[in-house]
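# nightly structure sweep
# worker-07 picked up a monomer target from the shared queue
# config: single-sequence mode, recycle default, output format = C-alpha cells
# input follows
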Amino acid sequence: MANHRNAEKAARQAARRTLTNRDRISRIRTFIRKVEEAITSGSKEAAVAAARVAESEIMRGVSKGTLHKNTASRKVARLTKRIKAIA
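# output follows
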C-alpha cells in the first residue's frame, strides 16, 4: 500500500491506465479476430477490408502507447502475409 500522497496518486493513475490499456488491447484483438475469420472463410476482399481497419487500430494502439511499434509491425506483417497466401 502506498504511504505518500504522490505514491497514492501514482497507484490511482496506474490503475486507470491499466483499464484503458486493457480496453484498447481487447479492441485490437477483436479487429484481428475479424481479419482471421475473413481469412478462414477464404474471402480475400473481406480480409483486405478487415485488415485495413485492423491495421489502423493497431497503429492507433502504438500512438497511444499501448503497443510497442515493433510488436504492431509484426502483427500487421503476419496478417498481410496470411492474406496474400489466400490467392
